[in-house]
Amino acid sequence: MAHLEAQKHISPDSGFPITLHPNFNDKIKDYVPAEPAREQVFPEKDRASFADPEKKSLFSVAKRVDLTESVGTVLENLQLSQLSPQQLDELALLVTERGVVFFRDQDLTTEGQVKLFEHYGALDRHPAQKDVRHVVIRGSREDHREILKYTPWPSGDFHADTSFEINPPSYSMLRMEEHPEVGGDTAWVSTYGLYDTLSDAMKKFLDGLHAVHTSRLQYDTILDLWGVGPNRAPIDSHHPAVRTHPVTGLKALHVNPGFVTGFAELKKYESDKLLDFFAYHIHSADDHAVRWKWAVGSVAMWDNRCTNHRVIPGTYEAPRRGIRTTVFGEKPYFDPASESRDERQKRLKAEKTQNEGKVAASKNLTPA
């Protein structure tokens, strides 16, 4: 917390730092971003759309191990650096279905990771990212509960990567180069599952709302806490609170505590109460969550359109350093005709039962 301007202004009464309004914090007030605001882009068709639904090529070289019923899969016995374009497409499809896929003991280099991820589209760039191809991700060893007293962004909470952008990222990949033996885990939660577990009345209510995703809070925090100048001015985007995934066609909750500050159609106290509920809903979703213990050489690839994630803070002293690449996704949209994952599973089960009944009936009618 040493960078925080509040640390320079100590209350003579309490002995604790005094929070400054951004207009009176010179680091924030006087900063001028170097880059213009982004315009909407239109990415090419998602590579997962070209994949074999059965993923035969991918599974011919990898063993699949699902970590939970809802989210998270490990692929064993493969090297990402050796996958063919067809296998990369099938990997993307698996990620859209399982939310996040993990790999251990990978031989990828930074150059190899960048080249691999360019297969999935145009590389995106985080507002604090200086290298045009990737961003360095470190751990969190400070008390994020204490930091939140002095800077407005809940940096330790669940989020989808830069969900405030007009075109938020679709896929992200994180490859760990340095990591402590204990601590620094990352947790993911399925937003398919978060939508499924809502009541029907709440689903109907949310289907018509727009969530306010903002980078304003992160912008101030990047300048004040991180001591880094953001590339772009802060932005607010009003995205559907429930989005339709372009590959799976499934509904996913598009709300996260990291970047969502309200709902466009609601008044402030209404939004605040709904956000309080979602904070509980997300943090209590152990049946739709997975926690990954990193090691050097581990890789995770996830889909920001159907997961939220957070790094677990800790007090470890060893360095934690990962390389993250992301690609531009489509502008989020909601299709009223789309279905939830639970609805699809029930529909497919009913259709299977019906078809089996027809087959049995036809056998009974067949002459001996």
Radius of gyration using CA atoms only: 22 Å
Ranges where pLDDT stays below 50 over 5 or more residues in a row are: none
Content of β-strand: 15-25%
Q: Structural class, from helix and strand content? A: alpha+beta
Shape: globular
Discrete helix count? 10
Q: What oligomeric state best describes the polypeptide chains here? A: single chain
Arithmetic mean pLDDT: 95
Provide the spatial order of strands within the biggest beta sheet.
Answer: 1-2-3-13-5-15-4
| Helix content bin | 25-40%
- What characterizes the major β-sheet? 7 strands, mixed
Report the count of strand segments: 15
Q: What is the succession of H and E elements?
A: HHEEHEHEHEEHHEHEEEEHEEEEH
CA-CA gap between termini: 83 Å
Task: Provide an overview of this structure.
By secondary structure, the chain is an alpha+beta fold. The protein has helices spanning 26-29, 56-59, 85-98, 110-118, 144-147, 191-196, 200-206, 216-226, 268-283, 341-365, and strands at residues 63-66, 73-76, 100-103, 135-138, 169-178, 186-190, 210-214, 236-240, 242-244, 251-253, 260-263, 289-292, 299-303, 307-311, 321-328. The chain is built from 10 helices and 15 strands. Helix 3 (85-98) links the parallel strand 2 (73-76) and strand 3 (100-103). The N and C termini lie far apart (83 Å). The mean pLDDT is 95. The longest helix has 25 residues, at 341-365. The chain is 27% helix and 20% strand.
Describe the secondary structure blueprint for this structure.
Elements: H1 26-29, H2 56-59, E1 63-66, E2 73-76, H3 85-98, E3 100-103, H4 110-118, E4 135-138, H5 144-147, E5 169-178, E6 186-190, H6 191-196, H7 200-206, E7 210-214, H8 216-226, E8 236-240, E9 242-244, E10 251-253, E11 260-263, H9 268-283, E12 289-292, E13 299-303, E14 307-311, E15 321-328, H10 341-365
Parallel strand pairs: 2-3
Antiparallel strand pairs: 1-2, 3-13, 4-15, 5-13, 5-15, 6-12, 6-14, 7-8, 7-11, 9-10
